[in-house]
Amino acid sequence: MQKKSMNPFEIHVNKEKLRVLGKKQKNDRGLPGVSRIKAIEKRKRTLLQEYKLLNKSNKFMDKRIGEKSHSMTDEDRAMARFTAVRVKTHNKKNIFNLADDEVLTHRGQTLSEIEKFDDPRSDDEESLDDVNNTGKLDKQFVEDAHFGGGILKRTGIEGAKTHRELIDQLIAESKKRKAEKQKTKEATLELTEKLDSDWKDLLPIISKSKKTEEDEVGKPKIDDYDKVMRELKFEARGTVSDRLKSEDELAKEEKEKLEQLEKERLERMKGFIDEKTSKLNHRSADDLDDDFVYDSDPEYMLSYNNEGESNVQVHAEINGKSFSGNHENSEEETPENAESSDEELETDSEDGLSDLKEQTSESEDENVNNTVNIKANESAFKNIITPDEEDVQKINNSEHEKEETNVDSLQEKIKNDLLKRKEIMENARKELPYTFSLPECYESLQKTFENQSSNHQSVIIERMIKCNHQSLAEGNKDNLGLLFAYLLQYINDLFAEASNAESIKNSFDIFKAIVPQLFDLAQVNVENSHNSILEVIKEKHGEFRRKSKVYPGFEILSFCKLISLLFPTSDFRHQIVTPTLVFIEQMLNKCKVRNKRDLSYGLFLSTLILEYTTLSKRYLPAAINFLSGILHMAVPKTGVKLLKVLPPFKSTSSLLVLVENYSLESFKSLQMDSTDLLENEIKEEYKIRVLYNTLKLLEDFYYNIKELSSSSEIFERPLRYLELIPTLNYPKEVQNYYIAMETKKPKALRLYEPKIEEIYDGKRFKVQSKKKAERDKMLHKLKKETKGALREIRRDKAFLGRVKIHQRLQSDRERKDKVKRIYAEAALQQSELNELDRQKKRKK
Amino acid sequence: MSQLEKPMKISKQLRLKAQEFLTSKKNSECLAEIVRHFDCGADQPSCLLALELIFTTLLKEKQMLIEVVPLKPVEKTPENQYKEWLRNAYEECYAKVLHSLESGSHKIQIQGLSTAMNILSQEGKFPLESKGSLDSYVPLSKLKSVLMKILSNKQNNMQLINKYTEYLLFDDILFFTWKLLPSLTAKSNPNDIYIMNYLLLLEKLQVYQNNDARILCGNENGSFFTYEETVTIKCLNKIWHCVMLWEHTPQTHKQLLIVLLEKVLTHLEKPLLLTDFLMDSLDVGGPVSLLALQGIFTMIQVHNLDYPNIFGKLYSMFEPEIFHTKYKARLFYLSDLFLSSTHLPENLVAAFVKRLARLALIAPSEDIIIICNFIGNLILRHPGLKCLLNNPDCGTASTDPYIMEERDPLKSNAISSSLWELQTLQHHVLQSVASAARFINTPLPSVEWDLSKILDNTGDDIFDKEVKKFSKLIVLQFEKPCGASLIKDERIMQYWNL
């Protein structure tokens, strides 16, 4: 349609005072004439009609079908009217129209149902079967019998039977066929049923055998192509758990990738646990196995790049599978850890310690280190101290290396225990029955665990999980969730009851054994595990609230540790980790430190904080306050000058001041011990250990958050205390340790000033609440609408006024015309009368 | 069973006995029995109730009222003798009831007080001697003895005083307590228990009339009694002069300050006389100086006191220890008030800001949030402090120019520093804290943060909030732990041999 070009004189242009570029304008021009006409038309259609009907009680209704709707054409209207008429006639009860809406049936089935061909099988069978097999008469017979065949036929066949014979034969035949058919049908049905039941029995076996087949296939060798393909396949998968704090994201993405790989690898490894005969070609630096033979093969030289990833190709053969390449070298860091015997751990940890320092100086050559370490293990711990002391001084220069080796040594330590543990587990496996049902209640779980060693308990849970895998039965997922809750309760009771050294050690053993299974359970039913742990934390916090000055039971330590194992602690905010952190902080802030148990408890919590924050590099004041409080305790108080300390520590307490000179020979390990959580008497040896670990923790914390701009201020207080601790009484290693720390006094790293830029976007917003803004908007609208409505009413009135005056004028005019006419007529009459009179007069 | 029933029985017996006594004059030995039972110490509450029943009824029925005809000796009728005896018994029993106020058990104490006050109220309504024009009066001697018991110097009567506040809702009791107090105030140094009781009572006493004007001793149409506020204020001033002369232990000193701030200060005639006292208190340290600070603030605000180094004092109060005192919310509130003026020198406010920021580095989480908002408010009030957040020409500094040890805020050199601490706090473990410290990254809002809502927050509140926050995303660790140690960054096992 062509747009009608407007007469330029009819267009009204609104002048603009300020022209803004890019601003769209609706009201820059208007057509007053057109819009006025439109309005008048509209009023004529609506208001005028109403006006005409004003004060009238009757009105006409147009009930013709389709008359008012403009969308219908004339034909449509005609059709509609026609159908209406038909419907009207139809509605009259027609007495002759019988059973119109009755449903027709055939053999009790409605015809429509039959037409659906619901049972296609019989049809199919009949069509597929030989023609003779159907119960119907065959074609030839029909031709013969029904249509007589006629004379022609009879002549053709010699010795033909009579008609009666023929019929008899026919009946017998058809009966026989029917019977046969019935028989075969039953047989097939029976067979299928049997097959079905057999299949069900076989199902588990088959699924297993499939796996083993796969294994066998997978075992021989994996060529590079397969490996790369698999890698690519797994790489693409992103986990949900990657949600991280935004600042950290970039830094961590690299790390995350490695972790992802590691995870996939772990899953593959897990399937082969049973075969432990496999040999690892590569040995970690710390390997303690008796059958270890030092291998001088130069291929296995290791060095690490920034990520702690080795750049040397390593061939590892595991379960007959051999992997090679850079990516796979982490194969060695076997995570199946170890609940090995206690002495084992102890020597290991010492080993790790010495290793840690040794490697700072000689991290280039791992293999040399390897031998050194083994020798070191055999000789007394003391022997290494002399090199250590030198090394400590070097720590400053080689922090970075140290971090790597730190991780490395830990992993190797873990690796160390693997074989031993496997053996133990294997034994446990053999001793225990293979299936365990899930416990219905907590008591039955307790009963199952009674008198079982930690390894046995672990295996029991493992088997419970396996026997009740969620794919095997419907309710298993929920049941496993219940098992998770029971296990939490079990841990709780275990630690709550632990009161002497023996029992607490035992509880930690069991805890260590159960944790991997708990991890599995948590993966199975995420939501449930989340809820139950949250409930536990809430409950414990509720208890703590009632008695907030005393450190609660050990079970909280175990739960906090469990949380760090099950959930990613590095998240900016985590459903569970964050409340737990609040809880830990409150404990560290509020609980009074009075005896050895409190000290150790707090130290454990501080270590936990360190563990929670290592990845995220974040900071919690309470932990550092606590550690500096410990340092404060080690400062001898001279009485006159009161050295201030933050609560919950008291400025007068000096529990940890060393009284007499102490040498290193008399104690075994510098590590904290689980029994430290119990005893109340503080020995000299304990004091040294606490101080040693406190300093180490402080150092770790320092490295953790040294990037932060105020790190020097944060550590100012502990350093002040440190300067006040007399060094004479301490054994040499401890002394060296913290002097080294002191020289490391952090130099403030100055970051750039936060840059603040005002955002100016030209618009000024009133600052007010959303509700009020909404209300203002509505009020404005109301005002506008009221004005508009008033204007409309005014125009309506004017319109009506015009109409009225028009009517009035018209009626006046009519009246005038009438009067005129009457006058004219009357005048005419009069004139005629006058005429007559005049004529009469004239006649006289 | 029997043990349970026994007290029931005895209370019933006592009640029966009391009723017996009341029915006939011949049963006078019942009273003696009750008194004897009361003396032996068992079932004191029920004995008290029985005595209360007896004497309130006696007073109501005016049985102890001896008609006195002017200028005539009292006739020695048996009637009068009985009344005389009753009166003696009444005085004796009242003394015994008062004695129960010194009992060790709170239950007996409170029962004793209510008995004493009930009897007192009945006597007020039905006086023992006809007083002519007065419809009723308050038996002042009895009230005085009650007060003496309350202001004991042997035990802390906190519960008793709380119970007594119920009676202070009656205008007459309140008024006469005020009137009696000056005579009960010790002139020389009393012991601290007495002081504590005294101050506790004083804290509950109200200077002005109660709104609903009820009267304990008197009929409903008690138009005779007028409450004179000038009198009470005069009494208060008189008392306070004595109280200030006492020697105070730290506890009572604190209580004294609380009473002073909450009740007394507005009614004193010459509050400026207290300046020295407040100054001394300010130097004590801890909560006492905090309370004194509040007093001084009122003095400055209302009475035009000019105190030279008030900001220095306030500055010195921000020590790491404050986070573990009960009064930290008050301190934040007060310092917010003190620093609310926009005409303070910028380097002074900057010193406060820096000091707060330093403290935030070691504070508990809930306080860090308060401090962050407080710092934000200060910067909003003093736009010049934006140089602490955004200092384009500062370049780099190797150490913080701010001197934490400096006592004088003006010399601490804070204005040339920068708020690195807040930057650090953005890496706090808790999300709520980290985001509170994040305000320095965005343009400041135009309205100040509302401190009053968060001042009373505790760690528990933060815990509750965190627990309630719900997000559908539940993230699990994806690396299976080995034993109880993490694959990466295991620390517990490094430090602990478990």
Automatic annotation (TrEMBL), chain A:
One of its GO terms (cellular component) is small-subunit processome. Residues 330-353 have a biased composition (Acidic residues). The keyword Coiled coil applies. Pfam families: Nop14 (PF04147). Residues 303-313 have a biased composition (Polar residues). InterPro entries: Nop14 (IPR007276). One of its GO terms (biological process) is maturation of SSU-rRNA. The keyword Oxidoreductase does not apply. It is found in: Nucleus, Nucleolus. Residues 116-135, 298-373 are annotated as: Disordered. Keywords: Coiled coil, Nucleus, Ribosome biogenesis, rRNA processing. Residues 400-427 form a coiled coil. Involved in nucleolar processing of pre-18S ribosomal RNA. Has a role in the nuclear export of 40S pre-ribosomal subunit to the cytoplasm. Belongs to the NOP14 family. This is Nucleolar protein 14.
TrEMBL record, chain B:
One of its GO terms (cellular component) is small-subunit processome. Residues 289-437 form the CCAAT-binding factor domain. One of its GO terms (biological process) is ribosome biogenesis. InterPro entries: CCAAT-binding_factor, Noc4. Belongs to the CBF/MAK21 family. This is CCAAT-binding factor domain-containing protein. It comes from Rhamnusium bicolor.
